[in-house]
Amino acid sequence: MTSIRDTAAPWQSPPGVRARPVAPQVVRRVSELVGADSEALAQTLGLLDPRQLVGVAALPDPLPVTPAVRAAALDGPVLDPEDRRLLLAAGVLVLDRVDVLLGATGASVERLLAPPLAGHLHLADGRYRVADPRLRAVVHEDADLTERTAVHASLAAELERVGEPGAARWHAALATLAGDPALADGLVRLARQRLGQGCAVAAHAVAREAASHGTGEVRARAFLVAGRAALLAGYLHDAVGWLERVASTGVAAVQEGAERARDAVLALADARPLDRAGTGTRPGAASLDEDDEDPPGVRLARLVVPVARATVSPADRAVLAAVVDALARLDRYPREADEVLARAVVTAVPYRETAVWTGTDGLSPLAEAHLRVVQALVLLRGGDAEQAARVLDDAAARLPVSHVVGGLAAEVARRTGGSDTLAAGLRAVGPEPVAAAVAACRDLGYPRPAAVPSLVVSAVRSCRGDPDGLADVWARWAGVLTARELDVARLVADGLANKQVADRLCVSVRTVEVHLGRVFRKVGVSSRAELTVVALRPAS
To answer: DSSP character for 6?
Structure first.
């Protein structure tokens, strides 16, 4: 893993752009979509508004096309109108199925495999991937409204035919120029389903579309799901806007959920915890640190409770409950805090940004952000500042860490040594750490025998040359597993989902599943979590 500390500070605007703070996860995502060219990155960031730059509002999809992006995307054979139509359909389809793409466009697979499309679409095992996201953005921008709606209508019809009603409803909504109330209720259900799977970014997009079609109570429910999804994606500004719309509808049935989500926004944006009676504090209430005799960890745990109450996904709720538990134990029972968090770390499926609606359930961005920041805190308190820095660097590049737990990430970054650039960047896009966050980063100095390393340290070991890590495990398993089975076991133990393992090894997901089943049988385990725990267990 390349540390953020080893690169130019990504949250600082590139040369030629008026200096504005940019969140690490935003610039990383934008650079993935526009390429490593500094001019393309600078031009694109210059078109985003300040809230999008600091990560509290959703990025447009696709991103706006700049001259540098257009020049890079079209640097190749000229595309004819039919090629563009195919690429437009491929770029907007939310399921990466080749059969749906062919059925909706009437194209043949031979056309996809021949130049120039062969260079733009990567096909494998009935799935496809658009090779260059810049070309996706250019083709989408160049298509007029009639072309876009026609493509969505064709995709909707084909998806309905192959038995994908949720995706069909999404494309049907995008093919409708005027709002269609008949689509709204199904879209709300779809958004809630995606949110329950941890896919907060996709849920936010679907709920926004539902709100544009719905009326009455259905529209109020769409506002609520959009607000919750925005919250769990880390889009705090967007969340406030959607939740205020809930209040304007006057629909009592959704008011309680909106209040719960609003409490979570306050806990993140203003470091306002729940009071001891279990209700959210309101403007004018005492701050987190005034006249509070609880230890720092307990005070920080109270900030996480409103977020946990606002979650929809069982995986999110379980992780946030573990975070609350670990923080509450941190000061008086550090070993117990270590154990509680380690269990959450080894069983959690990380958030994965994807343009398609496939893949296993995982954490939402906000839930994983809480887990990684508190993981870094526990590592720091245990004396492993280097590992804490690695965890926080990786999290800051992917997740909305700046607002979680009273600005704790910025303080952890400052305490891990080395450059203060990450700490300064997180402060620029988030709140100043509260006193409890500052106090929680102080080393307790409790003894940790060398023979009993932190479980959290073990849970983030990798096989990349760490003498205290998994090298002995792989040596023992090399006599039991084939080389490819060992590769799969390593990546699963590192926390990768099957699709990520497949992408890394350039094989199909089904092939990964087969290898993993064999690994389970040979090693004597029955789940991914058990495999990870066995891999982390030191040799006897």
So the answer is: G
